[in-house]
Design brief:
heterodimer; A: mainly alpha; two-stranded antiparallel ribbon; 74% helix; globular; disordered C terminus; B: mainly alpha; 14 helices; 1% strand; amino-acid transport (chain A); membrane (chain A)
Chain lengths: 299, 309
């Protein structure tokens, strides 16, 4: 049984790492801007398309193959630089402090526009670019073969989690973000440029989503419709962990991954249902997520 | 009274358009089916609640029709009524849990339930046909099996009658104390509790009616298209229902239908020269939100427009 379960778990954890990148971006944007960004999944798929295209270009241009690794991060940074400030300034900014219904609608409109935009720019074909995964090869531990790239994904996710926590607690920028999250008005009164913080946080969120997409391409490739699928998964993970909780997103990603492993092992047809069942149960018992400690309710 | 006459006139115009140009019948019936579901979403929007999962009741209505047809019930009217009843029952059960939540939590819980339904519909291949969906055999009318064209005409005319009946019923509901309380929930929920109006009761009734309308629309859609798919329950479909409701405006009963017919017509004409259809719709949605907060309906009825969100 372990011979089956361990590889499955590593597989699931690598998936969890990808979803963590997207969900933590979503949760970060929500906690700073108080906007639930329905278009967040689109940044994931745009990042994936950008990374696959850039990787394919690197390979076809005859450049050294190891360049495909920086290409992954570079394309995510590129997507964030193009979309982050622009979208925040032009669209999201007008919804601050408005009702949730309005915010969801505005970002849904953005989702529709971005879905078509990537179809026009990248076409409707699936792209595969697995050079990074091939280069890393695999390791044999205890008679089981692991893909090194998957182990790298898990390590990167852990690094990102630690990095984000350190950034918020130890850097000037992080402390400013924490202040704005804690009290927007007082921060403004103290002279913090909240608009700049919002833009930075949004751009960081876009970067994390795009990075998730970019890192996923070597294992899964990219095809149309990816954004919408990822969106709901990221929603589920962010909601389970408690919207706005960074470590919550990490734990929730692992819980969802393990739930899927169990589902695949015991009831394969329930595989796709598992994340949403967990989300449903958690939200019914603890509507604010597993990690939410704030007890204030609106009513 | 003026709005009533306007609505009747609009119905007559749609009927004449459909009868004189039969190729429009399929399109208009489908628009009306979606309009019914969007009207359900509009009811919840009145109370300030946004559901990113309401397509589940649309799908429940559609799949109920498919299952009933497969099990030998083929009468058109019986199918409509039974499917709506099934969706209503689902609405009561799901709603009983939902009405405890507000804002984002309401939206996300609806999303969770609808995604569970979507995944089950696409995975339980032996029961639901998986991602292939299920075929829906053409319904009969009181034991008579019509040809394709007659069928489309009858469905179209029935949908108009249903819109009229639903329109009367829902506008009566909006004017009733129970319906007016929906807006009050949006404005100030605590005051309602103070004057001893049970908010959860108000919302449960609203939720159930909205589920019933979505189910009715779904049942229509299943029979018009002749096929049901799991995608009917996917979250983007729920997003589209909200879009239709907001585009048309939630100030009155006519709003969602205006939105649905407008969208369906634009879709058909836009499809002939561009495939960036989502982009147009998304931009239109943003335009309506920022510049026409009471929707297309607000253009006609300035007095009772009512802001969408």
């Amino acid at each position: 049984m372990l011979q089956v379960l361990i590889p499955l778990t590593v597989d699931a954890l690598a998936n969890a790492a990808i979803i963590f990148f997207v969900a933590v971006g979503l949760t970060l944007v929500f906690s700073v801007l108080r906007v639930l960004n329905v278009a967040h999944g689109s940044f994931y798929s745009i990042g994936a398309y950008a990374a696959a295209s850039l990787g394919l270009w690197v390979v076809s241009a005859g450049l050294p193959e190891w360049l495909t690794f920086p290409a992954l991060v570079l394309s995510a940074a590129f997507v964030a630089a193009i979309f982050g400030p622009f979208v925040e300034h032009l669209l999201i900014r007008w919804t601050y402090g408005k009702s949730e219904a309005l915010q969801i609608l505005v970002t849904f409109g953005l989702f529709l526009i971005l879905e078509d935009l990537q179809r026009i720019v990248f076409g409707v074909n699936s792209l595969y670019e697995d050079t990074p995964m091939r280069l890393l090869g695999s390791t044999m531990i205890g008679g089981i073969v692991y893909l090194n790239y998957q182990l790298l994904l898990i390590a990167l996710a852990i690094l990102t989690l630690v990095g984000l926590k350190l950034m918020i607690s130890h850097t000037r920028m992080g402390k400013l973000i924490a202040a704005v999250v804690a009290d927007r008005e007082i921060s403004q009164a103290l002279g913090i440029n909240t608009n700049r913080i919002f833009m930075l946080a949004f751009t960081l969120g876009v970067f994390l989503a795009a990075l998730g997409g970019a890192l996923a391409t070597p294992t899964t490739g990219v095809s149309p419709g990816l954004g919408a699928d990822t969106m709901v998964l990221a929603f589920a993970v962010a909601a389970i962990g408690g919207l706005g909780r960074i470590e919550g997103a990490a734990v929730a990603a692992i819980i969802v991954a393990l739930a899927r492993v169990l589902a695949i092992y015991y009831a394969p047809e329930l595989d796709a249902v598992a994340p949403y069942l967990v989300m449903l149960v958690v939200l019914l018992v603890r509507p604010y997520g597993l990690f939410h400690t704030d007890t204030t309710r609106r009513i | 009274m003026r709005m009533f006459l306007l609505g009747l006139a609009a119905l007559v115009i749609v009927a004449i358009a459909g009868i004189s140009a039969p190729w429009l019948q399929f399109l208009l019936s489908l628009a009306i089916a979606k309009g019914l579901a969007a009207l359900g979403v509009a009811i919840l929007l009145r109370a300030g609640l946004i559901s990113i999962g309401h397509a589940m009741f649309f799908a429940i209505g559609a799949y109920a029709t498919a299952f009933l047809t497969r099990n030998g019930i083929t009468d058109f009217v019986s199918l409509l009524i039974l499917s709506t009843l099934i969706a209503t029952a689902a609405g009561v059960v799901v709603g009983a849990f939902m009405v405890r939540y507000r804002a984002i939590f309401f939206a996300m819980l609806n999303l969770a339930v609808s995604m569970v339904l979507f995944s089950l519909l696409s995975k339980l291949y032996n029961i639901t046909g998986g991602t292939d969906g299920m075929r829906v055999a053409r319904a009969t009318f009181f034991g008579i099996a019509p040809g394709e064209q007659t069928f489309e005409l009858i469905v179209f005319l029935t949908s108009l009658v249903v819109v009229m009946l639903v329109g009367f019923a829902v506008s009566a509901y909006f004017r009733s104390p129970l319906g007016e309380a929906l807006k009050a929930v949006h404005t100030n929920e605590i005051r309602l509790e103070y004057i001893s109006i049970p908010v959860w009761g108000v919302l449960l009734v609203g939720y159930t009616i909205s589920a019933a309308l979505a189910g009715l629309g779904g049942s229509f859609a299943a029979m018009i298209i002749g096929h049901v798919l799991p995608e009917m329950a996917f979250w983007t479909e729920s997003g589209h229902l909200i879009l239709v409701a907001v585009l048309g405006g939630i100030g009155g009963v006519a709003g969602p239908f205006i939105g649905a017919i407008f969208l369906e017509l634009v879709h058909t004409f836009a499809a002939s020269f561009t495939d960036a259809w989502s982009m147009i719709v998304g931009a239109a949605l943003l335009f309506v939100i920022f510049f026409l907060p009471s929707g297309l309906y607000g253009l006609i009825n300035k007095k009772r427009g009512g802001s969408a969100v």
